[in-house]
Structure formats: C-alpha cells, structure tokens
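Practice problem: Glycoprotease M22 family domain-containing protein
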Amino acid sequence: MGIILNIETSTKNCSISLAKNGLPFLVVEENSEYYSHAEKIHCFISSAIEASLLKVSELNAISVSKGPGSYTGLKIGLAVAKGLCYSLNIPLLSIDTLSIMIEGIHIEKGLIIPMIDARFKEVYISIYNENKVRLTPIQAINIKNNSFQEYAKHKIYLLGNVAKKAKNIIKTQVDFYSEIYPSSQLMAFLSEKYYKNKIYENMETFEPLYTLN
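Answer key — structure tokens:
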C-alpha cells in the first residue's frame, strides 16, 4: 500500500491525482484547448499536496503516462516525475495511455478499443477484451469506413475524443465513448498494481512513446 502521485499529460488535459490503495482521493486537472502543462503542472501538484494535508516526503512513488501522446505534454510530465523521484528517492512507474483510458469503462462482454491522435491522419489503438486483457499491440492505423469490420461479431466500444471524428467514417456497428479521455484519476488502480509488484522504470534510460506535438 502506498500514496502515489499520478501524472497524465499525454493530451491537452493536464491532470494530476493523489491515490492510496488504488483509489484516487484528490484530482486536479484542466482539459484546455491549448497545451498549458508547463504553466500548470507544478501549481496543480503543490495545490493537491497542500489540500491533502500531506507532506511531499510521504509520497511512495510517482506514476506517469508513457504515451502514446503529445511530445510536448509527455516530455513535461516525465521531467516533473523524474525530478520528484530523484529528490525523494522513490520509484518511477509508467502506464501507457491506452491502458489508462480503458479504466474508464467496464463491460460484461465485447471489445474495448481506446484511440488517441497520432501523426497526420492516423490514430493509435490497441484492442482489449472485457477483462481488460490486451489482445493487440499498440499500433497506428488510418481510420476507414471498414475499420474493425473483422471484429463485427463482437460488441465494440470505441473510446477517446478521436471517436468523434471516427463516428463519421466508420460504418461498422460500434458504441462511441468520446467522453473517456486520458486522466490521472484513471491511473490509480494500475499504479498501485505496478507499485506492489515493483514494476519500476529505470530513470536514466526510460523514454515515453512520443507521437505528436
């Protein structure tokens, strides 16, 4: 059991949360039209620590989104996370953005496909079953009218604000959840799991998956 600071900056949502035992208990985030992470993230962390009545020294680990996502956002989030980990001598955890997103939905049967903008007209996706087991690696695809047709026998849940664009293209029957986007509050369960299992990153060599500006 630990107190973990989660940092999610892969999109225009600048988001931090404090979590204990796999549950977020304080969230500060702003989903802006612009990338304002550099101006916001330190203030968000300071205000969260102050509001929680914790001391920074009580943090047991820092968890950061490792992408795919914005080069600008991920670089800022990782720099802050590494700085805190070094100064507090605590481990760095990382979770890929698509795995974070699927924590925003629970289904009984079907396939979950989170999506995030990639370069040009591509999107990054990965496919998960109802137990949130990853079935395909993270990959970049072009959205077409027959996308995901090979999975048509399953009920398909498409996540992310990219789904708004895809809705006008895809002809395959899918359910769209554009309101589910990367957020630090969705990181709590996996962060705790990684912390308990000591799945730590090497701070000297770790680099996230950058995709876009």
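Discussion: The domain at 106-177 is CATH 3.30.420.40 (Nucleotidyltransferase; domain 5). Students who identified this feature from the tokens alone can consider the problem solved.
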